[in-house]
Input
Amino acid sequence: MKGFAMLCIGKTGWIETKKPVAGPYDAIVRPLAVSPCTSDIHTVFEGALGERNNMVLGHEAVGEVVEVGSEVKDFKSGDRVIVPAITPDWRSMEAQRGFSQHSNGMLAGWKFSNFKDGTFGEFFHVNDADMNLAFLPPEISLENAVMITDMVTTGFHGAELANIKLGSTVAVIGIGAVGLMAVAGAKLLGAGRIIAVGTRPVSVEAAKFYGATDIVSYKDGDLAEQILKLTEEQGVDSVVVAGGKPNILETAVKITKPGGSIGNINYYGAGEFLTIPRIEWGCGMSHKNICGGLTPGGRLRMERLIDLVKYNRVDPSKLVTHVFKGFDNMEKALLMMKSKGKDVIKPVVLID
Output
């Protein structure tokens, strides 16, 4: 089969590779729609995961099952499915401990284009199919469905990590697709005031659609100073960090009230250390909680998010700004995520 791959750090291209083989609990899926992610950009152009040679890229996909293993009970050839970006090993001790994302090693639930070939091929492999696939309802479009696989679940996880309370004030730093879903998640969890940090007009308008009450731009000055001024120097109850350079955690700590929570879903693709400001962290005793997490994966998570879309609790369509047809546009879509023009949030590539 052919696949669009990371050839080495800084270089992508098409390769010929072996079609994957299903184990007894696994499935082989043919993609119907895929979307490149900023994580792919970190992986290829920053070498965030280290050198990878001829590794098929991609972890956001919906598709059609073409083959299942002998022990798969719920899925069969021809089923249209949503495939989560995170596909844990559910027979692991980490899954029993409640952290399936790290099954058999830190971040090891993230398998596509990390530990194995991803979804940008003619076929791809899904481990533990009964636990990692979800049926695609006919009323959900392919474009919306592929947003559920990563953008929706990751953004919502940021809101979950930030411990948002009814009526609380929340800041979301970074309003790309993940940050926009963090805004939507904060609203669903009952936040009162939602301060979104971003500059691109297309994202600002989407943030307002999803529930942002205030917009702050780094172009207008120091972010911490602006947000503290907006909140009469009180700060916010919760922060979701969904973008920014490694020093963005400093801003998050500065704007969080004592006892508040910071949920980090930002992927730091470079550098050795992340710093936090000593004084604003109360010399280590501020009760400002910092929690970073990889989004949960698996079937149940997908089914619950599918219901949020199906029953009109969230509309992911505002995330999709460009739609391409055909595998030949894979490189164009990936480079669009790299350059991130003013009118881009997320591109989707429809295979059929």
DSSP finds ten helices and 16 strands in the chain. The chain has a mean pLDDT of 96. The longest strand covers residues 256-264. The radius of gyration is 20 Å.
